[in-house]
Protein backbone atom coordinates (compact mmCIF):
# COMPACT_ATOMS: atom_id res chain seq x y z
CA UNK A 1 0.00 0.00 0.00
CA UNK A 2 1.17 3.50 -0.76
CA UNK A 3 0.40 6.28 1.71
CA UNK A 4 0.99 9.97 1.61
CA UNK A 5 0.20 12.72 4.07
CA UNK A 6 -1.41 15.43 1.99
CA UNK A 7 -0.85 18.13 4.57
CA UNK A 8 -3.19 20.56 6.21
CA UNK A 9 -6.64 21.42 4.89
CA UNK A 10 -9.40 23.58 6.31
CA UNK A 11 -7.34 24.17 9.48
CA UNK A 12 -7.25 20.42 9.93
CA UNK A 13 -5.74 17.34 8.32
CA UNK A 14 -5.78 15.87 4.82
CA UNK A 15 -4.53 12.36 4.04
CA UNK A 16 -4.57 10.18 0.93
CA UNK A 17 -3.33 6.66 0.25
CA UNK A 18 -3.71 3.67 -2.06
CA UNK A 19 -4.60 0.16 -0.96
CA UNK A 20 -4.62 -3.15 -2.84
CA UNK A 21 -8.10 -4.16 -4.02
CA UNK A 22 -8.37 -7.03 -1.55
CA UNK A 23 -10.74 -7.39 1.41
CA UNK A 24 -7.77 -8.40 3.55
CA UNK A 25 -6.55 -4.78 3.48
CA UNK A 26 -9.75 -3.27 4.87
CA UNK A 27 -8.36 -3.77 8.39
CA UNK A 28 -5.44 -1.53 7.42
CA UNK A 29 -7.90 1.14 6.30
CA UNK A 30 -9.79 0.86 9.60
CA UNK A 31 -6.67 1.06 11.79
CA UNK A 32 -5.25 4.00 9.86
CA UNK A 33 -8.53 5.91 9.96
CA UNK A 34 -8.87 5.29 13.70
CA UNK A 35 -5.37 6.69 14.27
CA UNK A 36 -5.83 9.71 11.99
CA UNK A 37 -9.18 10.67 13.50
CA UNK A 38 -8.40 9.75 17.10
CA UNK A 39 -9.63 13.11 18.46
CA UNK A 40 -12.63 13.48 16.15
CA UNK A 41 -16.15 13.57 17.56
CA UNK A 42 -17.37 11.74 14.45
CA UNK A 43 -14.53 9.16 14.32
CA UNK A 44 -16.63 6.01 14.75
CA UNK A 45 -19.23 7.07 12.17
CA UNK A 46 -16.45 8.10 9.76
CA UNK A 47 -14.79 4.71 10.17
CA UNK A 48 -18.07 2.89 9.51
CA UNK A 49 -18.77 4.98 6.40
CA UNK A 50 -15.25 4.58 5.03
CA UNK A 51 -15.29 0.83 5.60
CA UNK A 52 -18.56 0.51 3.67
CA UNK A 53 -17.23 2.63 0.79
CA UNK A 54 -13.92 0.73 0.66
CA UNK A 55 -15.65 -2.65 0.77
CA UNK A 56 -17.90 -1.55 -2.10
CA UNK A 57 -14.83 -0.56 -4.13
CA UNK A 58 -13.32 -4.02 -3.65
CA UNK A 59 -16.53 -6.01 -4.10
CA UNK A 60 -18.27 -4.09 -6.89
CA UNK A 61 -15.66 -2.39 -9.08
CA UNK A 62 -12.54 -3.12 -11.09
CA UNK A 63 -10.51 -2.17 -8.02
CA UNK A 64 -10.71 -5.83 -7.02
CA UNK A 65 -8.03 -6.42 -9.66
CA UNK A 66 -6.02 -3.32 -8.76
CA UNK A 67 -6.11 -0.62 -6.11
CA UNK A 68 -8.48 1.85 -4.53
CA UNK A 69 -7.60 5.23 -3.07
CA UNK A 70 -8.77 6.52 0.29
CA UNK A 71 -9.00 10.19 1.21
CA UNK A 72 -9.63 11.56 4.70
CA UNK A 73 -10.08 15.25 5.48
CA UNK A 74 -10.86 16.80 8.82
CA UNK A 75 -11.38 20.31 10.07
CA UNK A 76 -10.92 20.35 13.79
CA UNK A 77 -12.57 17.56 15.76
CA UNK A 78 -16.12 17.84 14.42
CA UNK A 79 -15.95 17.85 10.59
CA UNK A 80 -14.74 14.91 8.46
CA UNK A 81 -14.97 13.88 4.81
CA UNK A 82 -14.08 10.31 3.83
CA UNK A 83 -13.80 9.32 0.17
CA UNK A 84 -12.90 6.27 -1.89
CA UNK A 85 -11.81 6.38 -5.51
CA UNK A 86 -12.25 3.10 -7.37
CA UNK A 87 -11.26 1.79 -10.78
CA UNK A 88 -14.82 1.97 -12.09
CA UNK A 89 -17.24 -0.62 -13.36
CA UNK A 90 -20.45 -0.86 -15.33
CA UNK A 91 -22.75 -0.85 -12.31
CA UNK A 92 -23.47 2.46 -10.63
CA UNK A 93 -23.74 2.65 -6.85
CA UNK A 94 -27.28 1.86 -5.73
CA UNK A 95 -28.93 2.49 -2.39
CA UNK A 96 -31.18 -0.35 -1.32
CA UNK A 97 -33.68 -0.01 1.47
CA UNK A 98 -32.82 -3.41 2.88
CA UNK A 99 -36.48 -4.32 2.93
CA UNK A 100 -36.55 -6.09 -0.43
CA UNK A 101 -35.47 -9.41 1.04
CA UNK A 102 -33.47 -10.96 3.85
CA UNK A 103 -30.14 -10.85 2.02
CA UNK A 104 -27.03 -10.55 4.18
CA UNK A 105 -25.58 -7.74 2.05
CA UNK A 106 -26.67 -4.79 -0.03
CA UNK A 107 -27.34 -2.21 2.66
CA UNK A 108 -23.94 -0.50 2.87
CA UNK A 109 -24.86 2.80 1.25
CA UNK A 110 -28.07 2.94 3.29
CA UNK A 111 -25.90 2.72 6.42
CA UNK A 112 -23.68 5.51 5.09
CA UNK A 113 -26.72 7.70 4.42
CA UNK A 114 -28.00 7.10 7.95
CA UNK A 115 -24.66 8.20 9.46
CA UNK A 116 -23.52 10.96 7.10
CA UNK A 117 -24.68 14.50 6.59
CA UNK A 118 -24.18 14.10 2.83
CA UNK A 119 -23.24 11.35 0.38
CA UNK A 120 -22.05 11.92 -3.16
CA UNK A 121 -20.51 10.36 -6.24
CA UNK A 122 -18.45 11.63 -9.16
CA UNK A 123 -17.17 9.76 -12.19
CA UNK A 124 -18.32 6.99 -14.48
CA UNK A 125 -17.50 3.41 -15.52
CA UNK A 126 -13.83 4.38 -15.87
CA UNK A 127 -13.52 5.39 -12.22
CA UNK A 128 -15.67 6.86 -9.47
CA UNK A 129 -15.20 8.73 -6.24
CA UNK A 130 -17.83 8.13 -3.57
CA UNK A 131 -17.66 10.31 -0.48
CA UNK A 132 -19.45 10.93 2.79
CA UNK A 133 -19.42 14.16 4.79
CA UNK A 134 -19.85 13.92 8.54
CA UNK A 135 -20.08 16.67 11.13
CA UNK A 136 -21.52 17.54 14.49
CA UNK A 137 -24.32 20.07 14.14
CA UNK A 138 -22.44 23.37 14.36
CA UNK A 139 -24.65 25.68 12.33
CA UNK A 140 -23.07 28.46 10.30
CA UNK A 141 -21.63 28.25 6.78
CA UNK A 142 -20.97 24.92 5.11
CA UNK A 143 -17.54 23.51 6.02
CA UNK A 144 -17.44 21.52 2.75
CA UNK A 145 -16.73 24.31 0.28
CA UNK A 146 -13.37 23.70 -1.35
CA UNK A 147 -12.82 20.18 -0.01
CA UNK A 148 -11.27 18.00 -2.76
CA UNK A 149 -12.83 14.83 -4.12
CA UNK A 150 -9.65 12.84 -4.84
CA UNK A 151 -9.37 14.24 -8.36
CA UNK A 152 -12.19 12.20 -9.92
CA UNK A 153 -11.81 10.90 -13.43
CA UNK A 154 -14.90 12.86 -14.37
CA UNK A 155 -14.94 16.55 -13.49
CA UNK A 156 -18.72 16.65 -13.01
CA UNK A 157 -20.51 15.66 -9.85
CA UNK A 158 -23.97 14.21 -10.26
CA UNK A 159 -26.60 12.74 -7.98
CA UNK A 160 -26.52 9.04 -7.23
CA UNK A 161 -29.66 7.04 -7.94
CA UNK A 162 -31.91 7.67 -4.98
CA UNK A 163 -33.09 10.46 -2.73
CA UNK A 164 -31.14 12.65 -0.33
CA UNK A 165 -27.73 12.49 -1.94
CA UNK A 166 -24.98 14.74 -3.20
CA UNK A 167 -25.11 18.19 -1.71
CA UNK A 168 -28.39 17.44 0.00
CA UNK A 169 -28.74 17.28 3.75
CA UNK A 170 -29.57 13.79 4.95
CA UNK A 171 -32.13 13.83 7.73
CA UNK A 172 -31.43 11.32 10.46
UniProtKB/TrEMBL annotation:
Q: Which Gene3D superfamilies match?
A: Histidine kinase-like ATPase, C-terminal domain
Q: Which Pfam families match?
A: HATPase_c_2 (PF13581)
PANTHER family, per database record: ANTI-SIGMA-F FACTOR RSBW, ANTI-SIGMA-F FACTOR RSBW-RELATED
Which branch of life, at top level?
A: Bacteria
Sorted keywords for this record are: ATP-binding, Kinase, Nucleotide-binding, Serine/threonine-protein kinase, Transferase
Q: Name one GO molecular function term.
A: ATP binding
Q: Does the keyword Kinase apply?
A: yes
- Specify the protein name: ATP-binding protein
Ranges of residues in domain Histidine kinase/HSP90-like ATPase: 19-132
SUPFAM superfamilies according to UniProt:
ATPase domain of HSP90 chaperone/DNA topoisomerase II/histidine kinase
Amino acid sequence: MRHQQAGRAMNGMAWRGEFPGDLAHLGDVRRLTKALLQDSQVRDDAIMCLMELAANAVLHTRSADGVFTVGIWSAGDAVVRVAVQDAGGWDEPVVRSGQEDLAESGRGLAIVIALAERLGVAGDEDGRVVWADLSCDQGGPSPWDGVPLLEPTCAQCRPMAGPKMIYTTVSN
